[in-house]
């Protein structure tokens, strides 16, 4: 049996006194890439590093006076295995599509708008560079939890690379119009 054939199932309970605690646990599990089967029951592939991160979530559950149990699923029926794999792929594909959308509807438009306004400043270029770094971090996070090889990864990389090219051109125009900020 390969590690790809094993899944980890987390079943947990967090006291219902505050929704903030439940939301915090849910957010951590979603960030980890957990696939919810039903409320407070989720599955993750048994991959290197996943169990350690899941243990940290369990510590958080304990801190909130909750309870949790992990089960290693080694004999998953083929139908359910296919459904899990497809659900993981769908989740990652959605995230790749969101990155593409962010590039096309925000990043590209931001540079276009700054060119229209003729706002060629180093401050603006730096602000846009920070947006590019956010996109890169987001893409790395999505890739880290794309265990099943979802479609859309290549397109997301292409769009982020296109963002970088557009920013490089914008920065070159800023430099040309404003000059070297270190000269003088």
TrEMBL record:
One Pfam family named in its UniProt record: ChrB_N
The ChrB N-terminal domain, residue ranges: 22-178
InterPro entries linked to this entry: ChrB_N (IPR046858)
Name of this protein: Chromate resistance protein ChrB
Organism: Microtetraspora malaysiensis
């Amino acid at each position: 049996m390969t590690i790809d054939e094993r899944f980890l199932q987390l079943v947990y309970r967090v006291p219902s006194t505050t929704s903030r605690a439940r939301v915090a646990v849910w957010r951590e599990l979603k960030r980890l890439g957990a696939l919810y089967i039903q409320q407070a029951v989720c599955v993750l592939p048994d991959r290197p590093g996943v169990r350690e991160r899941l243990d940290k979530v369990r510590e958080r559950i304990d801190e909130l006076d909750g309870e949790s149990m992990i089960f290693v699923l080694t004999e998953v029926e083929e139908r359910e295995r296919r459904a899990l794999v497809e659900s993981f792929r769908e989740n990652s594909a959605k995230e790749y599509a969101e990155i593409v959308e962010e590039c096309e509807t925000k990043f590209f438009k931001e540079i276009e708008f700054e060119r229209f306004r003729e706002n060629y400043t180093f401050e603006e270029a730096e602000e846009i560079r920070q947006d590019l770094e956010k996109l890169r971090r987001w893409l790395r996070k999505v890739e880290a939890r794309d265990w099943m090889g979802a479609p859309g990864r290549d397109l997301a990389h292409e769009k982020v690379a296109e963002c970088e090219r557009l920013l490089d051109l914008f920065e070159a125009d800023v430099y040309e119009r404003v000059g070297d900020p270190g000269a003088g």
